[in-house]
Design brief:
Blueprint (H helix, E strand, L loop, with lengths): L1 H25 L7 H8 L2 H10 L6 H21 L5 H30 L2 H14 L2 H11 L3 H15 L4 H12 L2 H16 L3 H42 L1 H6 L9 H4 L1 H25 L7
Helix pairs in contact: 3-5, 4-5, 5-14, 6-7, 6-11, 7-8, 8-9, 9-10, 10-11, 11-14
């Protein structure tokens, strides 16, 4: 009973310390409702905006529920093994989980969009000499494209033109949605061709730009395979590290499990959980492909 009380007090103290630290870091002296302060400290509004940017409509309440679910699971686990310190790991996981899921989905969406770009761009280049008009060529390409995301990308361009935007501004907006450096170059060549004419040199430059995108895609696939191998090694090592508490649990210490029945052992298991979360987060951060740098 004493260990449970100490663990709960330690967990509450940890959460309170994190809240105070965030408040001091942000330098805010707002005296709003405590629930709103707590939601603000969890960056729920930021998560909501990021989720909307990738097509997910999450309310702050739904994000808070997601955080609470991970904490409840940690609470059930802490009850099952009589280790209330596990709640701290559940709190950390709950705070990190929304950002992790949203970032994974954002990268997945961008990777899918980039991988489907080259064929439509090839079609677009082939249609320009006949149409002699970028907007008309994009419209024809959109109608011939089967991928819905590429269709939407081209449809947004056509819609922007319809409401009075210039070809340059509409193309720049398309560029900002893709956010790929080699695609930026393609758009620059396309804008230049629009104003200076679709000469053989201009068409050759566009073709070279698409080839550069294709080269980047091959490089991305190679890096992804290498990243999978490194991640597998990292997580295998992490799993091996968890064997030590399991093996040492069978060491004779008076017919008690040091990790389940002593405060020091329970704290050590909590540190193992926090360390594992840290290694997982940093592993994803350093080994995952950063599409923003491509």
């Amino acid at each position: 009973m004493l260990s449970i009380i100490i663990g709960i007090m330690f967990s509450i103290g940890f959460l309170f310390a994190c809240f105070i630290f965030k408040k001091q870091k942000n330098g805010t002296n707002k005296h709003s409702d405590s629930i709103l302060k707590f939601a603000y400290s969890l960056h729920l509004e930021k998560y909501q905006v990021n989720a909307e940017s990738i097509g997910w409509n999450f309310s702050k309440g739904e994000l808070l529920i997601l955080i609470c679910i991970s904490i409840i699971i940690a609470m059930l686990l802490s009850i099952a093994i009589s280790n209330p310190f596990i709640l701290i790991a559940g709190i950390v996981l709950g705070i990190y989980l929304p950002a992790f899921i949203i970032e994974k989905k954002r990268n997945s969406n961008r990777m899918f969009l980039i991988s489907k770009l080259t064929n439509p761009l090839r079609i677009l280049i082939s249609r320009i000499p006949d149409q002699q008009n970028i907007t008309r060529a994009i419209e024809v390409t959109r109608d011939e494209t089967t991928n819905e995301r590429i269709k939407q990308l081209f449809s947004n361009y056509i819609l922007n033109i319809a409401v009075g935007e210039s070809v340059r501004d509409a193309l720049l907006e398309m560029r900002n949605k893709v956010k790929l450096r080699k695609f930026d170059i393609f758009i620059e060549y396309l804008i230049q061709a629009h104003y200076e004419g679709f000469t053989p040199d201009a068409m050759k430059a566009l073709d070279k730009a698409v080839e550069a995108i294709e080269f980047d895609l091959r490089a991305i696939e190679k890096v992804k395979e290498q990243s999978k191998i490194k991640k597998k090694k990292l997580y295998t090592s992490l799993g091996t590290a968890w064997l030590f508490p399991l093996i040492l649990s069978f060491v004779n210490t008076g017919h008690t499990n040091v990790y389940l029945h002593s405060i020091a052992g329970k704290i050590l298991i909590m540190m193992y959980c926090l360390g594992s979360l840290y290694v997982f987060r940093k592993g994803e951060e350093y080994l995952s492909l950063n599409l923003d740098e491509i």
